[in-house]
Specification:
The chain has about 575 residues and is α+β, with helices and mostly antiparallel strands. The chain contains 13 helices and 17 strands. The protein has a six-stranded antiparallel β-sheet with strand order 3-2-1-6-5-4, sandwiched between helices. Strand 2 and strand 3 form a beta hairpin. The termini are far apart.
Length: about 575
Amino acid sequence: MLHSSSPSTEPLDFITVSRRVLHLATRGPGRIEFLRESSRVLLEFSGCETLLLICRFEHAIGDYEWWYTRVPDEAFRFDLRQEGPADGALRPADPPIGPGGGNRPPAWLDNLLISVLNRNVGPKSSCMTDNGSFWSGDVATDLALIERDTVLPGLIPGPTRSLAVLPFDIAYSVPGVLALMSTRKHVFSAHNVGFYEALAQTLGLAMDDRRAQHALRERVKELTCLYAVAKVLESTDGAIVERLPEIARLLPPAWQFPDILVARIRVDDAAFATGDDARSVHRQEATVLVDGVARGTVEVGYLEDRPEFVEGAFLREEAHLIGAVARELALFVQRRDARLERAHMATIMRQTDRLATIGRLAAGVAHEINEPLGGILGFAQLARKTANLPAQVVQDLERIIQAALYARDIVRKLMLFARQSPPSRDWVQLSSLVDESLSLLAPRVQEFGVEVRRELDPVCPKVYADPVQLSQVIVNLCVNAIQAMPGGGILTVRTRKEDGEVTIVVEDTGAGIASDIADRIFEPFFTTKSPEQGTGLGLSVVHGIVISHGGKIHFQSQPGAGSRFEVKLPASSPLPAMEDQRSNG
């Protein structure tokens, strides 16, 4: 081993050790790895046993302290230092190692380190250099503060004989201080302390380079991760649950310590984790916000502690990265929702176009059928009044009349569906109208053995509507409910006012509506009933009437447990167009 006490070899040793320290920095390792390897090199060069390093960073919670010794065995400590008194100096949080316990340097050495770090020690003695360094080849002689046999327990295994405290700069306005300690005398001298000052500056340059290299590598990892996430999410085809495992597995390699990191992603009801995230001791997360609504989270967590975590387990760039991943997921969900909404709107537009076509066709057919149908019905009724008709002829004529009446009812519904019957609107007391409509159904209710429960609000406000059409809505909904309970049941009809709307609720305990046909119940001519029971126009007519009145209709149904239809009509003033019609009339 070459020591600095040999003047003839010092320049070569200085160049060698500088190259080794700078070479360590170019690899861009983590801070602990770099400090450990650099400490080995510096102690090997100097022949010292212990190294102490304090660095100040503008973004840190406080200065950090690095302590390293190689005897009797290699050991190190990395920790933050807390703020001290109001004078701005930093003081150790714990008492010195020794009888009082603790794990910090003794106060005299700590004060010396901080004074050199703050650059407020001048060349007041032969122990101080013009550059603000303190050095001593025999501490017991040079410092009257301590006695000859004083030891620095925990720092070195015996009495401190040689000490050098060297200031250096890591970057602009980022100071540091390096302390080298030895149990041997005269390791440092006026001749070689300049080399150590230069070596300390080289260490500062290496630390700054290491930080830049490390930050660059971390940035490359982050950008690589973001690019890969964007590639996974570039297409909105497929379910989100298929994407989460791919994205979650991309996250750990982008963080500092992927071997102990677990990632978990949740979006809506889908979730995936790369490990047992419940064991995380340090956690970082970001919310997936879609149009201001939280739809999920992106989380990462470390499963164990590391010395580097004293300043925080996560880098500031990692906070930006997890936020960026959350935003990418939010954009994906937004694009997927938009695509599904477009597909839904396209379906609605096709359905609307089909309904419009059916409406125009129905209007034409109704007009063409209505006149001959009236003739059939009229002549059949006249023929039935003829005297002395055989019983069979009377029975046949009655069938013709009933069939014609049934056909006329279909034509009337078709014309209503096609908006051919002009509405006549007025203020209607809804509860009274519901009561009158239910009275029309009394025979059918008795026939089916259905119990009718009226829960009508007596002070329910009036609505501006066509009473005939509104009665048709109530009757059609109740007829459907009764037909759904062929073996009897309970029909409940309610009226109430809520949030500026008047609501009619028709609820039954019947067979319910199968989920596979729930989307089609308002389509014209769609029915699961036999031809004798219905034409498939009832609910489509109801839907048309409700929409034309500016209302809404919803239903809930569970097979085997009944159905519930809810009609909401505005309880506000009549539409301007309606007012104009009344005033003009």
